[in-house]
Design brief:
Length: 484
C-alpha cells in the first residue's frame, strides 16, 4: 500500500506544535507494517535550508500552480520520504509557516495552502512516475481542500481527513474561489462554501472518504456544540465515517534511557538519576533546591490550554508547599502574569518565556508532575512524554487527556493501574483540588513511585495507533473485482 500524507509541518524539519510530531512519527511506524508513506510538505525557506546537502531530485515542474511557478522535489531525511513543494513565491519569507514576523497571518495563506492541496491532488492523479498513492491522508485545514480537489477534478483516490484541532478552520473570502481554480458550483453546502466564504477544513470534512481525529473522546466531543466550533452539524451528518485514533510519540526520540539531551539518563528500574535533572531545572528557573514537589508546564500560554486557570491558583500551589516551572509563549497577559508570579514567589515559581526543545526534555526528566489544565485537548503529547519519563500528569478530563491518563482514584490505586490525576470540572476550583490531590499523593512515596512506574510502563508508542490507521486505509481500498 502507498499512502500520501499532506501536511503543513513535519518534525524534525518544521514544527509549531503536535501536528508536526504526528506527521513525522507516523511514516516510520507504518513502514514497520510494510506500508509506504510519503509526506508532501511546503518548501518553506527554513525547510529548504535544512535540506541542503540531502540528495534530491526534481520529479515534476509546474509552469503555473495556481498562478505561480513551482516544482516538486523528492528527497529523504531521517526516516521520512519527502515530496517538497518548492514554490519560493509562496513559501520563502520571514516569520513562521502561518504568520509573519509581526505575528499576523500571512495575507495569502489561502493561496499558499490551496497550492499545497492542489499539488497533493495532482500526485493522486498520477503526475509522479513510480508513485501513485492508494490513499491520501490530509492533515488539518491547511490540507483541507485536497478532498474537494479530488472531487471536482474527478480523481479517484480515497481520502482521510484528520482534525488535529477543530478550532483552526481556514476560513477565507468567497473571492478566493477563482484563484483556487475551483468551479463555481463548488460554492455549495456540500462543497467548499462556509458562512459565505471558502472553508478549508469544512471542505475536507464534507468531501473526505473518512474523517479521523486524534483521540476517541475528542471524536465524541466535537459532535457537540461545546466542542464542535460550529462544525458539529456537519460532523454529525458524517458520523458513520468518523473515528478517533489516539496519537503516539516517537519512543526513540523520547527515551529516558538514551536521551542525550538529559543531564542524566535513567530507567524505570532506577529513578535516582532524575535528581540531577531536577537540580538542572531548579538552577535554570531559579527555584529553591529542596525535595518539595516540583510541577512543570510546557505549553502555549493560552486560555485553550487553561493556563489562565493555573495563573489563578499559582498562589495556592505555593501554599501547598510545591514549586512551579513554566516554559512557554503565548498571550502577553499570561506571560506577564507568570513573570509577576515569579517575582512574588521567588524560589517557588520560575518562568522561561519561549520554547526550548532541549529544556522541555530536561523538565520531563526531572520534575515530579506536569500540569495540563486544558479546556479542550484533541490529544495532547506532553502528557505522553510525562508518562514516558516518570513525570506524573495532572490533567483536565477532556479529549485525549481523558483517554491516556488513568486517574488515581481509590479503585485505580487499589488495582495498581493509576498513572496520574484527572480533574473535572475544568475550572480554578477543579485545578486547585487536583493540585492538592497530587501533593497529597507525592507525600506518600510508595504511592507516587507506583504512579511513575505505571506511567513508564504504559504503551505510548505509535505501534497500536499505526495499526488502526493501516486498517482504516485498507478499508478504503476498492474491493477486488469492483470499480474504484
Amino acid at each position: 500500500m502507498k499512502i500520501l500524507s499532506v501536511a503543513s509541518e513535519a518534525y524534525p524539519l518544521i514544527k509549531t506544535g503536535g501536528l508536526a510530531d504526528v506527521v513525522g512519527a507516523l511514516p516510520p511506524a507504518l513502514a514497520r507494517r510494510g506500508i509506504e508513506m510519503r509526506v508532501l510538505l511546503p518548501g518553506y525557506g527554513s525547510v529548504m535550508t535544512k535540506l541542503q546537502g540531502a540528495p534530491s531530485e526534481v520529479v515534476f515542474e509546474y509552469d503555473s500552480l495556481l498562478g505561480v511557478p513551482a516544482r516538486l522535489l523528492s528527497t529523504r531525511t531521517d526516516e521520512l520520504d519527502l515530496i517538497v513543494l518548492d514554490a519560493p513565491g509562496l513559501y520563502h519569507r520571514s516569520g513562521g509557516p502561518y504568520v509573519d514576523a509581526a505575528g499576523m497571518d500571512h495575507g495569502d495563506n489561502w493561496h499558499r495552502f490551496g497550492a499545497l492541496a492542489r499539488a497533493g491532488a495532482d500526485i493522486c492523479a498520477g503526475i509522479l512516475e513510480g508513485f501513485r498513492p492508494d490513499v491520501v491522508h490530509a492533515h488539518d485545514w491547511q490540507a483541507g481542500l485536497l478532498p474537494a480537489y479530488l472531487r471536482y477534478s474527478a480523481i479517484a483516490c480515497p481520502s482521510v481527513m484528520t482534525i488535529h484541532n477543530i478550532a483552526f478552520q481556514g476560513h477565507f473570502s468567497a473571492a478566493v474561489l477563482g484563484g483556487l481554480h475551483l468551479p463555481p458550483h463548488a460554492m455549495a453546502l456540500d462543497g467548499v462554501e462556509y458562512h459565505g466564504g471558502v472553508g478549508y477544513l469544512k471542505a475536507g470534512l464534507a468531501n473526505a472518504s473518512a474523517i479521523t481525529t486524534v483521540s476517541p473522546t475528542y471524536a465524541e466531543e466535537i459532535r457537540t456544540p461545546a466542542f464542535g466550533m460550529g462544525l458539529e452539524g456537519l460532523i454529525n451528518s458524517r458520523a458513520a465515517v468518523l473515528s478517533g485514533i489516539v496519537n503516539g510519540i516517537d519512543t526513540d526520540v523520547w527515551n529516558p534511557e538514551t536521551d542525550a539531551i538529559l543531564p542524566r539518563t535513567y530507567s524505570a528500574g532506577d529513578l535516582s538519576a532524575r535528581r540531577a535533572n531536577r537540580r538542572e531545572i531548579e538552577t535554570r528557573f531559579q527555584l529553591d533546591e529542596d525535595d518539595d514537589p516540583l510541577f512543570i508546564v510546557v505549553s502555549r500560554l493560552t486560555t485553550q490550554k487553561g493556563i489562565d486557570l493555573l495563573a489563578e491558583v499559582t498562589g495556592d500551589l505555593v501554599a501547598e508547599g510545591a514549586k512551579l516551572a513554566v516554559l512557554g509563549t503565548g498571550d502577553t497577559w499570561l506571560e506577564d502574569g507568570f513573570a509577576g508570579a515569579a517575582a512574588r514567589h521567588r524560589g517557588r515559581v520560575g518562568v522561561v518565556i519561549g520554547y526550548d526543545e532541549g529544556l522541555s526534555h530536561t523538565m520531563q526528566g526531572g520534575a515530579d508532575g506536569i500540569l495540563i489544565p486544558s479546556r479542550f485537548e484533541p490529544c495532547g503529547l506532553t502528557q505522553l512524554y510525562g508518562l514516558r519519563y516518570g513525570c506524573v500528569p495532572i490533567v483536565a478530563r477532556t479529549g485525549g487527556l481523558a483517554d491516556t491518563v488513568i486517574d488515581a482514584n481509590s479503585a485505580a490505586l487499589n488495582a495498581g493501574v493509576a498513572t496520574g490525576v484527572q480533574f473535572l470540572p475544568v475550572d480554578a476550583p477543579g485545578l486547585r483540588y487536583a493540585i492538592k490531590q497530587a501533593v497529597r499523593l507525592y507525600r506518600q512515596p510508595g504511592t507516587w513511585a507506583g504512579l511513575q512506574a505505571n506511567g513508564m510502563g504504559a504503551d505510548v508508542s505509535w505501534d497500536r495507533s499505526a495499526g488502526l490507521y493501516a486498517d482504516l486505509y485498507k478499508s478504503l481500498l476498492p474491493v477486488a473485482g469492483q470499480p474504484a
